[in-house]
Amino acid sequence: MNLGSPDSTDVKDVKRYLNEFLMDGRVIDKPFLLRTLLVRGIIVPFRAKNSAEAYSKIWMKEGSPLIVISEQLQKAVQANFEEPVELVMRYQNPSAASVLKKLHEENPQLKEILLLPLYPHYAMSSYETAVEDIKHQHKKKNYASVLKTIKPFYNNEQFIYALSESIKPYLQRDYDKILFSYHGLPQRHIRKSDITGQHCLQVNRCCHVASPAHKFCYRHQTIVTTELVAKALNIPEEKIEQTYQSRLGKDPWLLPSTQERLPDLPGEGIKRLLVVCPAFVSDCLETLEEIAIQARQIFLDAGGESFEFIPCMNTQPLWVQTVTNWIKDYFNGSTEMLFE
Ligand SMILES: C=CC1=C(C)c2cc3[nH]c(cc4nc(cc5[nH]c(cc1n2)c(C)c5CCC(=O)O)C(CCC(=O)O)=C4C)c(C)c3C=C
Ligand SMILES: [Fe+2]
Ligand SMILES: [Fe+2]
């Protein structure tokens, strides 16, 4: 299960997509009336045209890169199984309701469904809303099957290995720094997901101090991914930096911001930059347009000399094998990857 895209780059389709996405109370977490006013009255009318233009720059002949690549991943994984492997999106198509219907109609004996949210890290606005949406649709129709979910895999050995191997070839050439740019979040979301109510963004160096809050802390989980990849690839500390991208609105988001850090780097002697986006396993608007086009321009305009975007794992054989292994382990009785 992935996030989803508009059906086309037409402004009306982009509007429909943005309305569904941003009216999700786990994304814009304001009371319903205020959210409606904000989303339908301000954000979508002002954003839709620019978003549609951004999508047009990266659209493939088969459709949105996020969907096309996720479909390719689904087909590659399906090739390793007799059991059906389906792709589902949180917003727009194919929806959880339609995929569940299809699965149960085509497989009347269906006993178990294993859900893989295609997000390495836990966030209320990505992993949690995806899981809750499909659970809700499953319960609504009273399906007899059991639905199990794979947990965020930010620190999973095979994920780290596949991600590190996807980065490795880019480290062969000379570079000054590798930037790990993760999708950002409002800081409020980090506090809301803190099950202790007193750890996240409250304790000094919270993400480095052991706490049960880490199970739901996006910031902690992104930091761990960066540290594990750095260790796997032996990247010196001074050559790594972590930032957060894609900010929306005026609330404080996670820092440092990718867009704000980029223009500073050349002045600090960072002229040759590598950028990787490990919050995404499939390339999408936020990597292909925001990073590979916009961020590159910001960096080069500020005096940077080379900017290399490292693509997501997409359909790389090691990633397909990793997903396949998780599913096989589950069917062989392992509960290690399951979210309880
Ligand atoms: C990686 C996980 C993601 C988190 C966490 C997340 C939070 C989040 N996003 C928005 C607002 C937007 N995000 C948009 C696109 C988008 N976001 C993710 C992933 C996460 N978002 C992906 C994979 C994509 C790309 C979709 C595609 O079709 O390629 C957009 C839409 C595009 C735009 O207009 O910029 C918005 C809006 C918020 C507000 C948020 C947390 C609160
Ligand atoms: Fe997003
Ligand atoms: Fe935290």
Automatic annotation (TrEMBL):
Principal place of residence: cytoplasm
UniProt catalytic activity: heme b + 2 H(+) = protoporphyrin IX + Fe(2+); Fe-coproporphyrin III + 2 H(+) = coproporphyrin III + Fe(2+)
SUPFAM superfamilies hit by this protein: Chelatase
Gene Ontology annotations of biological process type: heme biosynthetic process
Subcellular location, record wording: Cytoplasm
The keyword DNA-binding is annotated on this UniProt entry: no
MF terms in GO: ferrochelatase activity; metal ion binding
Enzyme Commission number(s) from the entry: 4.98.1.1
Ligand binding (Fe(2+)): 183, 286
Family classification: Belongs to the ferrochelatase family.
Protein name, UniProt field: Ferrochelatase
Classification of source organism: Bacteria, Pseudomonadati, Bacteroidota, Chitinophagia, Chitinophagales
Gene: hemH
